[in-house]
Design brief:
Elements (H helix, E strand, L loop, with lengths): L18 E9 L5 H10 L1 H9 L8 E7 H8 L13 E2 L4 E2 L6 E7 L2 H15 L3 E10 L21 H6 L12 E10 L1 H5 L3 H8 L20 H4 L2 E2 L5 E2 L2 E2 L2 E5 L4 E10 L2 H12 L14 E3 L3 E5 L2 H5 L5
Antiparallel strand pairs: 1-5, 1-6, 2-5, 2-14, 3-4, 7-12, 7-13, 7-14, 8-9, 10-12, 11-12
GO molecular function, one term: metal ion binding
InterPro entries: Dimeric_a/b-barrel, Dyp_perox_C, Dyp_perox_N, Dyp_peroxidase
Pfam family, one: Dyp_perox_N
Amino acid sequence: MSGRVPIEPQRVDAPLTQAATFLVLSLTDAPDAVKTVRSTIASVDDLAKNVSIRDLGASFACTVGIGSDVWDRVTGLPRPAELHPFPEVKGAKHTAVSTPGDFLFHIRSERRDLCFEFERQLLDLLGDSVKVVDETVGFRYFDVRDLLGFVDGTANPVGPSVPESILVAEEDTAAAGGSYIVIQKYVHDLKAWRGLSTEQQEAILGRTKLDNIELDDVPEGKQAAHKQLATIEDENGVEHDILRDNMPFGSPGSGEFGTYFIGYSRRLWVIEQMLQRMFIGVPPGLHDRLLDFSTPLTGTTFFAPSASLLAGLDSD
């Protein structure tokens, strides 16, 4: 990538950065709300350029996701084959909640001020056509660790495997080049977590804490670690990856500590099966023990159309 141009629009695989803002909005019933939103998201690349030009080395990027409930009204495009609202997953002890959200703006940069400025200009343009459902500011923590102290994102695909894992292709030509997005905002009980020994924490995550070495999977029918439960294979034994760009968030003063999960995938069923395995368990009842310390406050699904489809929304 040339240092003289910003990151390409709608790059779901934009580089990991030091700062991020996860902005979830809902459509209002204001006059011309649909028209305003359509025009704004169609020209979001221009807004991104206006902000990113101030520091091309800051890796500024914004990815726009559109929810199932407003897809038809806002885009007028064929629906992506798997797009539907986030389904609640209720296990014996923990629940993956389903929460509202029509639009997601995943804003990333090495500089917090650029994320702030983009969000400010964006909301000015959208005006009363939207209301804010959730705004979470994330930060990179040490050597890409979460607030539980473990390295996060090790299982992400790399190199040529990235587009294969995250971009819809020939299986749904109308949505080709786009990606499904699932978000969940988790808060951690750090006091309880810190009450565990390092070995207990490692058994729950499935990796060593200091050097991030993967532990062996347990036999079928035994309590599996988070790493094992989050590994998804199809009926032919082929493993399917997703791209995570999770970020820690929180405030020691308010006692809030969390991880914002965001997963991009070519196939929505991969993330949904992952959540089934985590919350219900394999076998049922043996849920992901990480959930005893991490509680999801939100759960929403979006689809990020390709840059060309997004830019064409205001062509009429």
